[in-house]
Input
Amino acid sequence: MLRSIVLAAAAALASTAVHAQTLKIAVLGPMSFVQGENHWAGAEMARDEINKAGGINVGGKRMQVELIRADTNEIQSVSDATNAIERVITRDKADFLTGGFRSEAVLAMQEVAMDYKKIFLGAGAAHSKLGANVEASYERYKYWFRVTPVKDTDLVRTLFAVLNTIAQQIRTELKTDMPKVAILAEKAVWTEALIAAVQKNLPAMKMEVVGTWQPSATATDVTAELSAIDRSGAQLVFTILSGPVGISVGRQMGERNMKAVAWGINVEAQKEEFWQAAAGKAQFVSTLDTLAEVELTPKTVSFVKAFKARFKKAPTYNAGTYDAIMLLKTAIEQTGTTNADKLVPVIEKMSYVGAAAVLEFDKRHDPVWAPGKNTGIAVQWQDGKKVPFWPPNVKGMQPFKMPAR
Amino acid sequence: MLQDILVTGLVNGGVYALLAVGFSLIFGVARIVNIAHTAFYMLAAYAFYTLLVKVGLGFLASSVLAVAGVTLFSVLCYRLVIEPVREHEAAVLIATIALALIFQELMLFSFGGNYLGIPSTLEGGVRVLGVSIPYQRMLILVVAAAMLTAAWFILYRTRLGLAIRATANDLEVASLMGMNVHRIAMATVAISVALAAIAGVVVAPVFVVDPFMWLSPLVTMLAIVVLGGLGSLKGSLIGALIIGYVEAITVFAVPAGAYLKGAVALAIMVGVLLARPEGLFGVAFEEER
Output
């Protein structure tokens, strides 16, 4: 009996010792959805890489990384997301936080994280307000850093740069001076500024806007919109879509054998599952993206290959949790502490070469948009494969294709 | 633009009509407020996807198994969930909402929140009046017409149809006349869910399959059945075409307001109901009784 008690006590002590050697990182995401799957997969890649190498060196002491999987269910419920982050902080005693996808939910989770002064490395939400909070109230929000994607207004810069390239190709191939562009944007707050920017700037870029169509983000049928766009003679459909309507657009454009080519933001088209979801009809649909087997940084190709080998699919930008955790490791080893207040100024000054981009942060703790460092990429679906085609100077890029006429 | 509206409205109206037939039968004729109706449509779409894409059965075998499986399952659900509370409409409403949410969460758990695509049964398309229409949508129009005819035939040309209409009209009198009202209600549920399942199999290939796909058609179906007049199959068809055309007109006339097409359709429904509370064909339905 006594022997059992002693053994149990020893086991408990050993367990406590093991816990003391771990660094708990909560991965927050909608785990039933592709976004959450990628959050978790990216974090697992980072955890295994770090632990295999002996852990994180915190002031001479090696600490293993322990991940906490937190299903925020944020696509369906913002309150579920705040409950999840509260739970990982108070019950699971998470040291750091990463993930998040839906801006509304991340804004709410940001508040909870800041209440507890926990470093939160965002890997999914693009809304400017997240960074604006840091600038407006630095002492409260300084623990927030956006690792990926670049903020919404910077996404526009990439969109226009790629649009210019495609328009030039249309001018050459279709022998027209003013390519006709139809704007197809879901009705949502986040698209309003983008639509206004496109409508304002396209004439100056020598393109004609033939109309703006705004279906619901959850529309499953856009045949009426596409009929109208077909009738308008548009050669390019500028998409601003984040919901499942992106699949309907891709599929139904293919079914209608439309000659116009789609470019823009189509979040569903960023996913590996898009081609299947669109029943193999989304030929030549193109979208802004983050990761592909191209040399964005010296780490990109090896990361994407390792991810594909392990998970049998390509990563989406939410797998940026990998960069977030690796960046955190670098910062901790540099400072020799896990103290959030001491880590913040170090992260602020870092120039970290990640798998998706070279990460540097501005005063809003947003990643700095810079060609050659952090712009994102453009990809096009060609015969079932997501083919990267922009920025053209990056090794591994392939040609953008137009539908046959 | 006129030809675009004519063709697009007809095709989309056909899609809605196919979805509305079964709903009209269960909600309008049998007066069972089965909110889970479109959830069965979702289940059929998932079953069809699994059998066709995952298992690799052909289109025909997958369709038959999906429709038969979901129909049998609906009978089980009726016996276990609806029948015990059938006499209390509010309880039926709540029970079927619960059923639909359970189905939704089960699909979310089993397949995740990913959007799934089902290959078209018929590939290619045709141009009508300069408007491109995929064959799959033409198939929906044909199936919708066939299902409307079949539903009408069952209701008005068979003893079962007579019994369904009789029990819907007066449950107690039908029971006193020797009819097994529970069995008739079960048959009504089976027929209507079979129609929903057929819709799931035929319509799902033009949409995407996801755990929440039952919500949007539910609202549209309610609007169509109420607009057409409770219990009138003819009303459902006309209601479906009206909604299809109103949506097409909205998109073509106000491109930037395309997202309003559902709201405009519902506003027209409210307008019709204010003028004719019984719906477009409600009086004819009463006379038919």
Summary: The interface with chain A takes residues 1, 4, 7-8, 11-12, 15, 108-109, 112-120, 125, 131-132, 134, 136-137, 205-208, 210, 212-213, 216, 247-248, 251-252, 255-259, 261-262 of chain B (CB under 8 Å).
